[in-house]
Design brief:
A hairpin with a 2-residue loop joins strand 5 and strand 6. This protein is mostly beta strands. It has one domain. It is globular and about 50 Å long. The protein starts with a helix and ends with a strand. It has 2 helices and 14 strands. The chain is 11% helix and 54% strand.
């Protein structure tokens, strides 16, 4: 129960931070941009870490290639992380490697560590936030989009929600009782001026236990049409 509460709390913070920090606060006009973040939350130190994670792309191209090449946008990564988009057997993904992902001892006597990579890049055009499938970058790999009811009643009537299949690769050494949560969040934000904005967003969450070495099939979700009307 404690782990579930912690997981939901971390996810809520990530989603709020994504809309406000990566995609721009609605009260401050910004250019249209894409935001991408990866977070690892663990209760045990991980070593010899290699991850392959879903990566945003459209027709094989990604606005974040230039970000990780250092020629556009902004990126901040935890100390010791080495990141690069690479080709895999499941398509282009982001490789994350680190000799160690540390934890610290909290006041309650438990160990915990949360580490986040954040990246953003200007879109250079108006983003199709209402129907991004087929027209905007989305996390890849992705299989079998299925429309489902949106969980948030605050979403406008035009909003749509979908779920899909995806996967990650995880290899690291860890104690048997290690709990590791991997969060991948991506989306596009369109500033409409006057404190109004609209966006689409995706999230992929993987919950892992103990040491890992291999591919893990998981699900992702896409929410489109959020925010203000034009």
């Amino acid at each position: 129960m404690k782990r579930t509460t912690l997981l939901l709390g971390v996810l809520a913070v990530l989603l709020v931070a994504f809309v406000v920090a990566f995609l721009g606060p609605l009260a401050t006009p910004v250019e249209s941009e894409y935001g991408y973040s990866i977070t690892l939350a663990t209760n045990a130190t991980l070593s010899n870490v290699t991850l392959y994670l879903p990566y945003p792309a459209s027709d094989g191209d990604s606005p974040f290639d230039a970000v990780f090449e250092g020629t556009a946008g902004n990126v901040s990564a935890p100390e010791g992380w080495r990141v690069a988009p690479v080709e895999t057997e499941h398509g282009r993904m982001l490789r994350v490697t680190a000799s160690e992902v540390p934890t610290r001892l909290r006041s309650d006597g438990r160990r915990h560590g949360t580490h986040t990579l954040r990246a953003s890049v200007p879109a250079g055009h108006d983003i199709d936030t209402v129907d991004p499938v087929g027209s905007e970058p989305l996390l890849r790999p992705a299989d079998g989009f299925e429309t489902v009811p949106c969980p948030n009643r605050a979403f406008p009537s035009r909003a749509t929600c979908r779920i899909y299949g995806t996967r990650i690769y995880a290899q690291y050494d860890a104690p048997e009782d290690a709990d590791v949560d991997v969060f991948v969040v991506f989306g596009g934000y369109d500033d409409l001026g006057g404190g109004r904005g609209r966006w689409y967003s995706e999230r992929v969450v993987a919950r892992l236990e103990g040491a890992r070495d291999g591919w893990v099939q998981i699900s992702g979700d896409l929410q489109a049409g959020a925010g203000s009307l034009p």
